[in-house]
Amino acid sequence: MLGVALLADVSQTALKAALAFYLVGATVGLFRHLRNASARDAIIEDDYGLSTVRLLQLPLFSGIAGVAFTALVPVLAHRCRG
User: Fold this and answer.
1) SS3 letters for the chain?
2) pTM of the model
3) Over the stretch 6-43, which tens digit does the pLDDT of each residue have?
4) Per-residue pLDDT tens for 34-47?
5) How far apart are alpha carbons 4 and 33 in whole angstroms?
6) Domain range for residue 12?
7) How many domains does the chain have?
8) Backbone torsion region of residue 10, taken as left when φ is above 0, otherwise alpha when ψ lies between -120 and 50, otherwise beta
């Protein structure tokens, strides 16, 4: 996504805002996952590395969702107005 934004000649202000939303989304997603994992009573012994993959992928997807949501809200608000 960063490469596409740089090729499209997006302003530095927009890139900084997108980075901030990405970092906030990734941090919130990671802490939510860790909180939910610590609240579980059952311990899974052999998950073949699935928990590690989830721990690595969750902040990535949460960050993308944070950027996509902030880009989607103005579009939906504009369509709802008229």
Assistant:
1) CHHHHHHCCCCHHHHHHHHHHHHHHHHHHHHHHHHHHHHCCCCCCCCCCHHHHHHHHHHHHHHHHHHHHHHHHHHHHHHHHC
2) 0.72
3) 788 888 888 888 889 999 999 999 898 888 878 877 76
4) 888 788 777 667 77
5) 29
6) 2-81
7) 1
8) beta
